[in-house]
Specification:
The complex is a heterodimer of chains A (120) and B (110). Chain A has no helices and 11 strands. Chain A has one domain: Immunoglobulin-like (Sandwich), CATH 2.60.40. Helix content of chain A is 0%, strand content 51%. Chain B has one domain: Immunoglobulins (Immunoglobulin-like), CATH 2.60.40. Chain B has strands at residues 9-12, 18-23, 34-39, 46-49, 63-68, 71-76, 85-93, 98-101, 105-109.
Chain lengths: 120, 110
């Protein structure tokens, strides 16, 4: 069974760093593009970027370029989303999702989401 | 970043048919396939429709999709209370070189 298991909720202060994870099971993460999607409170879905764990190729949305780092450790079937200096506006639910094949393909499996709360 | 244009809300009585539109440009909806996701409040999005009009296994045939030019639509017939959710369209954007989502349509079953 394909699953994307995300790390638990986080509460951080502005300026702190954070790395959340998305562990894949039931398929080889090396062969699929994995995306990160943000959902701010009461708002819609926003594509942040993608990674191909097979060779760690990444693409970022211009809206998030420079603000986040997407990485992966294929040996442990895990993708990561990282911030070096959180802001209150980073408060959101973050989902990882698997592209069914290439970039153009749909997200066929989603993680349950990681709630990140940034507050002083 | 720009989003694909969806109506913020839609509604219908049980058994009725509703349609949700998704409008974009030649660099996204017009030039690439459209996918749809259903999000029930408090849960993760669910894969609902792909390549404009293809249903993943397990999705009832009450759900159908279409695309013409730079617009796409999701239709739900025989509306049921369990269909009450937020619906998002999405497409690859050649200019952004990334995925664009619609703003979402909240469907209410009256």
């Amino acid at each position: 069974e394909v699953q994307l298991e995300q790390s638990g909720a986080e509460v951080k202060k502005p300026g702190e760093s954070l790395k959340i994870s998305c562990k894949a099971s039931g398929f080889s993460i090396s062969g699929y593009w994995i995306a990160w999607v943000r959902q701010m409170p009461g708002k819609g879905l926003e594509w942040m970027g993608i990674i191909y764990p097979g060779d760690s190729s990444t693409r970022y949305s211009p809206s998030f370029q420079g603000q986040i780092t997407i990485s992966a450790a294929k040996s442990i079937s895990t993708a990561y989303l990282e911030w070096s200096g959180l802001m209150a506006s980073d408060t959101a639910i973050y989902y990882c999702a698997r592209h069914s094949s290439g970039w153009y393909s749909p997200f066929d499996y989603w993680g349950r989401g990681t709630l990140v709360t940034v507050s002083s | 970043q720009s989003v694909l244009t969806q109506p913020p809300s839609a509604s219908g009585a049980p058994g009725q048919r509703v349609t949700i539109s998704c409008s974009g440009t030649s660099s996204n909806v017009g030039g690439n396939t459209v996918h749809w996701y259903q999000q029930i409040p408090g849960t993760a999005p669910k894969f609902l429709m792909y390549s404009n009009n293809q249903r993943p296994s397990g999705v009832p045939d009450r759900f159908s999709g279409s695309k013409s030019g730079t617009s796409a639509s999701l239709a739900i017939s025989g509306l049921q209370s369990e269909d009450e959710a937020e619906y998002y369209c999405a497409a690859w954007d050649d200019s952004l070189k990334g995925v664009l989502f619609g703003g979402g349509t909240k469907l209410t079953v009256l």
